């Protein structure tokens, strides 16, 4: 199973990163603007549509692990596609900065294969969200 790992350092406190990845109003600013609801609680589920141009994907998330302020993990699947992925956000504080490490697992399980399910596409998407969008949001430039 191929895992994608992305890490980024932010010049903010861990609480700011935690809030950005778990509070729906903040998530809508840098992640997906149409997330209907989100609660960092095991068992919470949500779903929403993402328009990828040629295809629309109904994202289905279910929270499977939470360590408040440190880690959140959720199942990630798509309506009308076989497969199940897992996305983990892990927060660590280092010398007045915060490192967020994202791990995306299970990409190989999605079928049928479409361009959006390639490792390269997924890596580029997570780089965009973690290194560009979230970085800009936390720095106040988004």
TrEMBL record:
It comes from the Bacteria. Pfam families: AHSA1. CDD domains: SRPBCC_CalC_Aha1-like (cd07814). InterPro entries: ASHA1/2-like_C, START-like_dom_sf. Residues 12-138 form the Activator of Hsp90 ATPase homologue 1/2-like C-terminal domain. Belongs to the AHA1 family. This is SRPBCC domain-containing protein. It comes from Carboxylicivirga mesophila.
């Amino acid at each position: 199973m191929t895992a994608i790992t992305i890490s980024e350092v932010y010049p903010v406190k861990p609480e700011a990163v935690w809030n950005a990845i778990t509070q729906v109003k903040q998530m809508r600013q840098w992640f997906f603007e149409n997330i209907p609801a989100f609660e960092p609680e095991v068992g919470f589920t949500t779903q929403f549509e993402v328009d990828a141009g040629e295809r629309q994907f109904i994202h289905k998330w279910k929270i499977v692990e939470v360590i408040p302020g440190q880690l959140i993990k959720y199942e990630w699947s798509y309506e009308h596609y076989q497969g199940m992925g897992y996305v983990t956000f892990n927060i660590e504080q280092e010398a007045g900065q915060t490192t967020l490490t994202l791990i995306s697992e299970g990409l190989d399980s999605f079928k049928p294969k479409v361009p959006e399910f390639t490792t390269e596409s997924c890596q580029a998407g997570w780089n965009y969200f973690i290194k560009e969008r979230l970085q800009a949001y936390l720095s106040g430039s988004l």
